[in-house]
Amino acid sequence: MQTKIRVGAVSYLNTKPLIYGFEHGMMKEEIELKIEFPSKIASMLLEDEIDVGLVPVAVIPEMKEHHIISDYCIGCDGEVASVCLFSEVPLENVSKILLDYQSRTSVELLGILIKEFWKIDPVLEQPTDEYISRISGTTAALLIGDRALRQRKNSAYIYDLGLEWKKFTGLPFVFAAWVSNKTLGDEFIQSFNSANAYGLNNLNLVLNANPYNFFELKDYYTKYISYNMDAGKQIALKRFLKKLELIHKPNEINI
Question: How far apart are CA 102 and CA 31, in angstroms?
């Protein structure tokens, strides 16, 4: 019996169009689908607990071997709506930022914007439990995914990281991509792309299957999230990964 390819995907609304085909029987003989939050999927890919994952792209430098296998991703070209810094005060008055543990890419992007674009110097804290209620005074928080969509109705100041990156670089951004830790065949990749495309080409089915009251999902899927891994996003991804390399480059020691 052929061993199924283990595929990890994210449990957020923004992935629903990409995984709709898989969840409705496409490639059921070829893959085993696992659903988790982004940083967990990344860990599973690093530990070879899955073969392919829709992972935060910040994990790529840690991989011994990686292949971006799909024509589709979770990206944006300007506002993304669901990756934002929320605050009660303007950016220049923020003294502390609480970081979302669920996505390393968003945390790394925030760090780049803080240092290179906004040029502010807040204290950064990684909470280990619920922290949305701590958004108060000069304490802001980075939220991603469905929680960010809900928080948009509650915060006076919203800094959209997709839009801020666009202002900074003029480029789109890739938050997550389908990455494998081993070589996969062309036939598998072709079928995988077709399964991704099915939900994107049948958004009404996706919308009917995922009722949501906090944000207009059709707008979210068509005006905010940009799913095609096109040439602009490939350039943006290289730019982002290069910045990460410079930030995390070990200090050279002369012996």
Answer: 24
